[in-house]
Amino acid sequence: MTDDAAVREFDGIRLERVREHVWEIPREGEMGVAARVLASEELLEQIGDDMTLEQLRNVTHLPGIAEPAVCMPDGHQGYGFPVGGVGAVDAETGCISPGAIGYDVNCGVRMVRTNLTYDDLRGREAELVDALFANIPSGLGGGGIVETDRDTVEEILERGVDWALEHGYAVRADLEHCEDEGRRPDADADAVSEKAKDRGRTQVGSLGSGNHFLEVQRVTDVYRPDVAEAYGLEPDRIVVLIHCGSRGLGHQTCNDYLRRIETEHADLLDELPDKELAAAPAGSDLAEDYYGAMCAAINFAWVNRQLITHRTRRVFERVFEEEWETLGMDLLYDVAHNIGKKEVHEVDVDADGRPTTAAEAVGRAERELYVHRKGATRAFPAGRPEIPAAYRDVGQPVIIPGSMGAGSYVLRGGRNSMDVAFGSTAHGAGRTMSRTQAKKEFWGETVQDELRDQQQIHVKAQSGATVAEEAPGVYKDVDEVVRVSEALGIGDTVARTFPVCNIKG
DNA sequence: ATGTGC
Predict the structure, then answer these.
(1) Is residue A407 classed exposed, middle or buried when 0-12, 13-18 and 19+ CB atoms within 10 A define those classes?
(2) Are A381 and A414 contacting, i.e. CB atoms less than 8 angstroms apart?
(3) Which of A33, A106, A153, A487 could covalently link to A301 via disulfide, CB atoms 3.0 to 4.6 Å apart?
């Protein structure tokens, strides 16, 4: 029997079909382990179109990597490491790589629910989008909801959303509905450069630019009513999605450590197939410093999204003339999709108890790993202690934003996520063309007019160029990405939303 | 993503 669909090749990289939606680059040559792509045939064609597969293969060269390196269905090429990649690396004998987490540390999404229905909002979209745009800082450069000093930035870096709670920008329930309760205890503000802190000083509570946005949406579909009920979602309900990260502070931190790693660990760099994968060996001072600084930037991003939430509640109070508590504007969940974290996972191990390939393993054991998720979302299944108590029986909420002309999804962590993808699923639609190409194909104002006239979506942006760069047409089909997640059982669809108002840089 | 380069 021959099966033509069993093998695919892109630029000399061969993938074998393991089962539906699972493609493997078998270990060969210098690869430490095998790599896997989680995709339908259609999405695999898109993934094979740029450098993603080569980058994924390179990831398997990282010392201490556990099997397999994973590429999500929305994967595309990134700086050294695919956006949509998961690399789990032994935290004792392996390494940590800033490029495998991304420049925008703790880029992520949070969803705020409301008691409003679409009818409550119809006819007032322009008023709401103007009020949001006027009150929530966006675009490149400085200007945040609070302008603060160096010492306060340090407190934010160390304490995360706990700082926001103390200063009246959060309620306790906000912390409880955030990944890690909005605070990474491993944060080390001393490991963040003065330059990074200075950039952060004027950016606490700001959206930024690029694909970052705040979007008012309506729930259009509910697929798992029991889970949706636990999450407080019903058809026709209005929700708010906030997508942003750690701004210049996270970017500066990533850059600082990439430069230090290149000079202080040139030996490891020489062994890697791509300079952009630069990594600090586990246990080195630099690995510890980077982990502490990266965790601090994670906290900064959570405070950033919290302050935007606070201001959003104020705007809704003014527009709808009710208290935000009465409007039911509770945080549903906040989840990162660019993050590196020490987590314990069961992996194949050799006689010394270190991660190895399935073929060479003498057994399986729990190991502490640096799980690098870059454009990938934690998706822990029901029962895990890391999940907020209110959701523990149904699974962790996963939020997957689509483009501004398409739906977004709420999923819940699937029962297979731990076995298939180190407790992860996809993070979005994924680009299909460069920003430069997008600006040739689209004109911002035309995109805005069409969205408003054809789909009743009201978009307001600082820059027309940004709207062109983020036009719906430059993104993959988010429905297809989510379908693969569902089919693999790594993230199960709970509800779908559709845009009403969108503000962006 | 990003005071839109190293």
Answers:
(1) buried
(2) yes
(3) A106
Residue nearest to nucleotide B6 (CA to C1'): A259
- CA/C1' separation A353–B2 (Å): 41
Q: What is the mean pLDDT of chain A?
A: 96
Q: Map tokens 């939606």 to a residue.
A: A21
User: According to the annotation, is A106 in a ligand binding site?
Assistant: no
Per-residue pLDDT, averaged over A182-205, amounts to 97
Longest dimension (CA), chain A: 69
Closest nucleotide over all strands to A252 (CA to C1'): B2
Which residues are in reach of strand B, CB within 7 A? A 79, 103-104, 107, 140-141, 195, 198-199, 203, 208-212, 244-245, 247-248, 251-252, 470, 505
The reported pLDDT for the residue numbered A499 is: 97
pLDDT-based confidence at A431, cuts 50/70/90? Answer: confident
Band of residue A90 on the pLDDT scale cut at 50, 70, 90: very high
> Which positions ≥6 away from A58 have C-beta within 8 Å?
A80, A81, A272, A273, A274, A277
Residues A447, A445: Cα–Cα separation, whole Å: 5
Neighbours of A440 (CB within 10 A): 10
Q: Domains (ranges, CATH) in chain A?
A: 7-432+475-504 (3.90.1860.10)
Of all residues in chain A, the percent with pLDDT exceeding 70 is 99
Separation in Å, CA A125 to CA A122, A129, A459, A484? 6, 6, 10, 34
In chain A the first and final C-alpha atoms are separated, in Å, by 55
**CA atoms lying within 13 Å on the CB side of residue A457:** 25
In contact, A372 and A440? CB cutoff 8 Å:
no
Tokens of A71: 């590429």
- Mean pLDDT over residues A294-318, rounded? 98
Q: Which nucleotide is nearest to A142 (CA to C1')?
A: B3
Give A467 CA → B4 C1' in Å. Answer: 15
For residue A28, what is the DSSP state?
-
Does residue A212 have a known ligand-binding role? Answer: yes
Taking phi first (over 0 means left), then psi (-120 to 50 degrees means alpha), and beta for anything else, what does residue A257 get? alpha
The nucleotide lying nearest A103 (C-alpha to C1') is B1
pLDDT tens digit string along A322-346?
A: 999 999 999 999 999 999 999 999 9
Rounded-to-integer distance, Cα A248 and Cα A100, Å: 18
Residue A430 annotated as binding site: yes
- What are the catalytic residues of A? 427
